[in-house]
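Problem statement: downstream parser choked on a complex file, so we are re-checking the raw output for the nicotinamide-adenine-dinucleotide run. The parser issue turned out to be on our end (a line-ending mismatch), but while we're here, posting the original submission so the record is complete.
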Amino acid sequence: MRLKDKVCVITGSAQGIGEAIAGGYAEEGAKVVIADLPCQMEQAQKVAKEIGSEIVLEIDIRDRTSISNCFAKAAEHFGHIDVLVNNAGINRTNDFDKQTEQEWNEVIDVDLTGVFRCCQEVLPHIADNGRIINIASLSAHTGGPRSPAYAAAKMGVIALTHNVARFLAPRGICVNALSPGVIGNEFTEITMAPEVKKWNMERILLKRFADAKEMVGAAIFLASDESRYYTAQTMSVNGGAWVH
Ligand SMILES: NC(=O)c1ccc[n+]([C@@H]2O[C@H](COP(=O)([O-])OP(=O)(O)OC[C@H]3O[C@@H](n4cnc5c(N)ncnc54)[C@H](O)[C@@H]3O)[C@@H](O)[C@H]2O)c1
């Protein structure tokens, strides 16, 4: 059990990659906090029941008060937080010349500023030698075809990861980005145009999209004691996708 009794808060964990990581952490003995939007609470409760999580909390990472309430409740329940996974994210796909300022602002607000807010708001609760794992994306590296705001936000997350790692290193807290490739799930179905899917597939050495569960091993490593000398890094799990 590599995460025995570690208190792990995962944002956006009612479905998708967050749900997969929550399940993997629970199997490794973690005390998992499922955190997601109020409209996702029914689904979040289902996930919690399946994986044996004691606590489901509402969080909207666009709202600082919602974040601080969520983390305070998690810390009140378990005493502290060991691991924060900043997984919640959205996309608004459009070509560069058509991306509206509203779409840009929505994506930056959740995918970049949301992660910034969460990293700040966890500070009073995160234990020394804890971990922060920020979910980035292959889009950051490829320039996200048809996702200008998303690509910029995710590259911003990688830069922010370096800064927060620097800030928290004196406390032994390791801060890393996990950068998934293309997951063959609903998020991809909704947000990725067929020509972009084809473009991506041509660049993936393993010639298939990932299952969300294939992100779990890296997420466990980054949360565990095994990663105590690993910080300010980006771990890409993308089937050998080429960045050109
Ligand atoms: N699906 C992919 O191919 C892919 C690839 C690379 C990176 N990612 C990243 O992985 C993460 C998870 O993606 P996914 O594929 O599981 O997506 P998903 O849409 O299945 O899940 C995202 C979760 O985030 C939650 N969420 C959205 N906005 C929120 C907010 N403001 N506050 C709190 N929660 C919010 C949603 O309710 C949902 O449960 C995201 O950061 C995404 O950018 C996904």
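For whoever reads this later: Residues 7-234 form a domain with the Rossmann fold fold (CATH 3.40.50.720).
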